[in-house]
Amino acid sequence: MKNVTDSFVSLGHWPSAGSFGFNTDILATNPINLSVVLGVLIFFGKGVLNDLLDNRKQRILSTIRNSEELRRGAIEQLERARARLRKVEMEADEYRMNGYSEIEREKANLINATSYSLEQLENYKNETLHFEQQRAINQVRQQVFQQALQGALGTLNSCLNSELHFRTISANIGILGAMEEITD
Fold first, then answer.
1. Which residues cross the membrane (predicted)?
2. Which helix (H) or strand (E) holds 81?
3. What is the CA radius of gyration of the chain?
């Protein structure tokens, strides 16, 4: 401050002190001008600067609060999403296990049905074989019986005379007549 007052005191020593003009001595005038401008700025600008800083501080604080609220909301959404994910994973595991159980059950049912069908086919095959065997046996019996009958008839015809033949026929008719009376 002493330099500022010295500048005013030394005005009398300037050669152009008595007339109006520009002082071209930058080193002498700048500190005075700067101190005056700074004093005016500090005196009048203090309130404006405080208001600007307070507004800026309030905006920063509200931005921080909003960011905190958004962060809390994001954390809550993340927790809800994680819970839904766990639930969906559990349901997927349950469906997967149920699917595997269902597949195993269907596999067992298919095996049982196939086994039953094979067993039925085996039974039908055995029945068909038995039927064909019986039919073949009956055909052989019939042929043997016919051959035996033809042989017996040939033997009878060659051995029997007409009187023996007549008696045999009469005896057979008598037997048939007796059987007819019994059945009535």
1. 32-49
2. helix 26-159
3. 67
CA distances from 120 to 82, 107, 124, 133 (A): 56, 20, 6, 20
CB atoms inside a 10 Å sphere around CB 83: 10
In angstroms, what CA-CA distances link 67 with 74, 76, 80, 125, 150? 10, 14, 20, 84, 120
pLDDT in tens, 132-163: 999 999 999 899 989 988 888 887 677 767 77
| Closest to 75 in 3D by CA, of 87, 60, 83 | 83
The better pLDDT of the pair 64, 101 is held by 64
One-letter amino acid for residue 180 of the chain: E
Distance from C-alpha of 89 to C-alpha of 97, rounded to nearest angstrom: 12
Cα–Cα distances (Å) from 126 to 32, 115, 121, 136, 146, in that order, read 131, 16, 9, 15, 30
| End-to-end Cα, the chain, rounded Å | 166
Nearest residue to 128 (alpha-carbon basis) of 138, 117, 136, 140: 136
Specify the pTM.
0.37
The domain spans of the chain are 33-170
Structure tokens at 140: 């052989």
User: Which pLDDT band holds residue 27 (cuts at 50, 70, 90)?
Assistant: low
